[in-house]
Structures are given as structure tokens and as C-alpha cells.
Amino acid sequence: MVCKSQRGPRERASFKQMKKAVSAIFSILFLFQFITAQEKPLSQPEYVKMLYALQKNPGGKQDIIAALRSRGIDFDVTDGVRSLTKSKGANDEELKRALEEAGRRRQNPSSAKLPPQKEAADILEKVRLNTLASVKDMPDFVVKQLISRSDAYVGTGNWQQKDNLIVAVSYSEKDGEQYKVLAIDGARVNAERGSSYAGAGGASTKGEFVEDLEIIFSPETKTEFNPVETDVIRERPAFVYEYTVKLGADKRLGLASGRNLSQTAVIGLTGKIWIDRETFRVLRLEMNATDIPNDFPIRGFRSATDFDWVTIAEEKYLLPLLSDIRFTMRSGSTLYPDITILDDDDKPVKDEEKPKP
Fold this sequence. Notes:
Structural class: alpha+beta
Radius of gyration: 27 Å
Helix content: 25-40%
Order of helices and strands: HHHHHHEEEEHEEEEEEEEE
Low-confidence stretches: 1-38, 333-339, 345-357
Strand content: 35-45%
Mean pLDDT: 77
Strand order of the largest sheet: 4-3-2-1-13-12-11-10-9-6-5
Number of domains: 2
């Protein structure tokens, strides 16, 4: 007698479901292993490969920065690694800072921990009070601002220096920041003091000394802050916060273009701010213009200003040391030249009278 075993329709369906279930389990395990691998710290060969890929895809810089911050590294930051980062990363400051911070975090993980939410809010409040108090207590002063202006077509990196300016910058609680051009390319000029140095022609800025910080930390501006990383600036440990100022939050936030600055546009801001972990004072401020109207001649604006203690009349005040300010402007219908302004602000002007309060 021959016995046969047959599966009925229900049994066959169950067998197929089992195969599907097994297949799904293997897929989940594979995905889990993939995710786990991606969370491992960057190895040096992996990091170097990412740097070389930037030549074909410059937009990948943010991916490298994100990986450095989220995954960290498992190698030492040597001079060779720094040199390669500088050359392949087009000397990008944000990329170099992210690498250095990843190296510090590897050496001392506890030093790179971000503050808890309540502590982060308390830090901001201390910085706000310190900043606004310093603005209120700032004495009248005059300093000499050395400005180098250059331009280049976007994407070329072929910077051509346009001129060098020497500008006297004064501050008083009554008039705010005032500017007077003293010399252009070494030749002294007789200019009037005003709220900007636009009379010298070309690109100009204002607010780097006091007003930018006042705007960002003013309660009326309702700036939104978020702690994102840690850093070290001039050997000072710092917390780094991202911030957003919404369009129209402060009437002083705007761009001006054209003859006599007749064209104006209200803007918003995004950026980062570096806060000294011991003194709760600002060490660095980065700003990027947002919400620029599509038909406005200026297509982009960004700045980075480093602050440090400066002695004026035998007293120390926290003031800018160096600003790197860049505009992207429309030229004709298709070309967009970059304009960069580098300020060096720490030398007092001897032949300028102290402004009247």
C-alpha cells in the first residue's frame, strides 16, 4: 500500500506565509546591521574618501560635517589630516571646526556634551543680560577699522582686490554706530561722519561693533536659539547655538543697494553664536540673510565676526577683532559676483575727536 502525503490549500498558504515571514525577518536583521554600521565613528580611510569626493560633489560638505558631528572619528587629528581637509575642503572654516571638535570629543567625550534644556536656557539668559548690559554701559569711543574689499565671480574663487579703506568707527548711546572714511588706498579723504560709509562707493556694512548683538539678544526680536555643538576659540571652551530671527522681527535688519542706497529690503537671519562657557560672553557671531526678495540686487549676505577683549582708555571691552563679510550681488542678468569685506578693528584712531554724547 502506497501512502501519499498531500498539503491542502490551507497548508500551502501557511507555508507561503512562513516563507514571507522568514524573508521579512532577514530583511529586518540586515537593516539593523546596516544602521548599526553607519553609527560607528568615521575611520580615517572613510573620512579621506569623503574629502576626495568633494571634488565631484562640492555640496557634500554638509554631509561630512553632519557625519563628524553625529558619528565622531576614531583617528587622531594630525597635521596631515588638517592639511588634506584644508585643501580638499577649499579651506572651509565650518568643515575645519567640525573636524577639530570631533578630535576633541574623541580625546575627552565629557567636554563635548551639550547642556540639558534648562541649563541651555539659563546660559542664554546670562548671555542676554551680559550683552545688553555691555551695550548700555559702553562708553563713547572711536576705533580705526581697516577694510579690505575684493570681488570675484561666483564659483571661480578668483578674488581681485578692489581697495583698502581706513574708517573711523565711533559709538555713543545717543547716535549708535557712526562711520567716517579717513583714507582710500592710502590717500586721505575728507568725508563726513554718518550712519554708514556708503559714501566711499562699493559694498559697505554696519552694526558689527554693538548693534548686531543687541538685535539678536533683544527680547523684542524673539530670536529662537538651539544648542548644537561645542567648540574652542582662542583656547576658550564654548557652547555653539544656532539661532533664527524671523522676517520683520527688527526694523534694523535689512539690506540696501543702488545709488544712495535707495533700494532696501527687510530680511530675516539665521546663524550661529559661540558662547564662552566660563564668562557667558559672545566669542563669535555668524549671520546669514534669509527671505531676500527675488527681485532684489543683493542675492546673498553672510558674515562671521570674532570678538575678544580690547583695551580702550585702560579699560577692557568685548569688541570685534575681525569680520569676514560677503555679499552675492546680481551683475546684469546672469552673473553673480561675490564681494568680501575683511575688517580689522582693534587699533585706536589718534587723530579723531571723541564723539559727543
